[in-house]
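User: Run a structure prediction on this.
Assistant: Running it now.
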Amino acid sequence: MIKIVTYNIQFGQGRDGKVDISRIVDAVQGADVIALQEVDRFWARSQMADQVDVLVNAFPGYDHAFGAGVDQATGGHGADGRPQRRQFGNLFLSREPIEYCRHHLLPKSASIGPLSIQRTALECAVTFSGTRIRFINTHLTHLCSETRVPQVKELLRIHKQAPHEGLPVCGAIEVNPLRDGGNYWAEGLMSEGVSANAIMLGDFNCTPGAPEYELITGPISPYGGRVTHPLGFVDGWGYAGGDPDGGFTADVKKEPARLDYVFVSAGLRERIAKCWVDDSAQGSDHQPVWLELAD
């Protein structure tokens, strides 16, 4: 089994108001794939800690990638004299090597009212038991459905266009005679194409009845079930038999809501073995969502 978990960690601030990143580490132990959102680097609210460094060191042997949506100067310097950058984004950790990753900026709306934050999707390709899967770790805007819909459309475009765009480096290898005729682009280059298998997971800030959810999973047919495109996704929670009126992961205006998901591409759906929410985790204002995928 491949154990996958997604967790919006709110920079380690739990429901008790305390920032304690060790609670996050404890909550995701045993996972093969860990997708985290709202990870801080050098913010006063999280004691100016480099949470990426802390979390990476907590999982020795795991590969990792970080994608910042917010990336600004702090005006301060670290112990090594280098300027520190205030960052906020998504962290991906994997027990198996990350073969390549791509960082995507999602559409953003300017605002003179509610806070508007740059959101991103971090795409990481990992092979488990001979199957390469593109994991897309994302966190959509909290503002409103109208600002999330363009972000979902971009995520779906990224997924569907991936085989057409190819690997980050692909095609004929250019030989440079100035470098002894060697292929200096060929170091570790993968020859296979981009996998159509994908798992899109994270905090989508929408409920199962929202238009953006329907864009991902397909509309409900009056004849039963959802009209899910073969290149689309199924909701891991629902496909594993989860209560359609349960699976709550956060509170919205003091009411429980399901905002965090593990969406699995249609071609992998039969491998979904189990999906659950860890209601015992206390390290954030969200709960982790776990999914087991058969090898």
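The first strand starts at residue 2 and ends at 8.
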